């Protein structure tokens, strides 16, 4: 039996705005008006306060960060497990049987919120990672004898 688990605090949200600077190689970031953390009512349809960001005026870069390090997507957790068995048949024949389970506990791992300020889904989570996946497999092997 083999197991692997992976837990994390969520990835930083990337806030994007249209680039209206018109200077090559320089990108624009959003203006941060106030703190984007919600005091209550955080859910996938309203992950952060979208009024905290505004599009900067033309030919300006904005005062926010490209990545908001303190504004993160949801935590995630995942357990993968596998069982395998090798069975000998005679002197040289071996059969390997494997059972693998990905996301064993079927955790709902939500994606990162949409950070595009011009998107209709800005501040919303519209995706999730894979649900539980089970697979079974077998294969014949030959065992070489060393003299």
Structural class: mainly beta
Assign an overall shape.
elongated
Total domain modules: 1
Q: Approximately how much beta-strand content do the residues carry?
A: 35-45%
Strand neighbour order, sheet with most strands: 1-6-7-8
Number of DSSP helices? Answer: 0
Output mean pLDDT: 87
Any low-confidence stretches, pLDDT <50, length ≥5? none
The share of residues in helices is under 10%
Q: What is the succession of H and E elements?
A: EEEEEEEE
Alpha-carbon Rg, integer: 25 Å
Cα separation of the termini: 32 Å
Strand segment count: 8
Largest sheet: 4 strands, antiparallel
Could you explain the architecture of this structure?
The protein has 147 residues and is mainly β. The protein has one domain (2-142). It contains no helices and eight strands. The strands form three sheets. A four-stranded antiparallel β-sheet has the order 1-6-7-8, with no helix packed on it. A hairpin with a 3-residue loop joins strand 6 and strand 7 (93-102). The chain is elongated and about 80 Å long. The two termini are 32 Å apart. The model has no long low-confidence stretch (mean pLDDT 87).
């Amino acid at each position: 039996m083999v197991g692997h688990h992976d837990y994390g605090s969520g990835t930083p949200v990337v806030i994007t705005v249209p680039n209206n600077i018109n200077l090559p190689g320089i990108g624009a970031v959003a203006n941060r008006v106030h703190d984007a953390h919600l005091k209550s009512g955080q859910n996938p349809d309203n992950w952060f306060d979208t009024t905290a960001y505004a599009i900067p005026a033309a030919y300006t870069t904005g005062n926010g960060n490209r990545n908001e390090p303190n504004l993160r997507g949801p935590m995630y957790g995942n357990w993968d497990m596998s069982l395998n068995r090798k069975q000998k048949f005679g002197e040289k024949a071996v059969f390997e049987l494997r059972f693998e389970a990905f996301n064993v506990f079927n955790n709902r791992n939500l994606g990162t919120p949409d950070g595009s300020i011009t998107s209709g889904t800005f501040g919303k989570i519209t995706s999730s990672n894979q649900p539980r996946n089970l697979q079974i497999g077998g294969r014949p092997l030959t065992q070489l004898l060393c003299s």
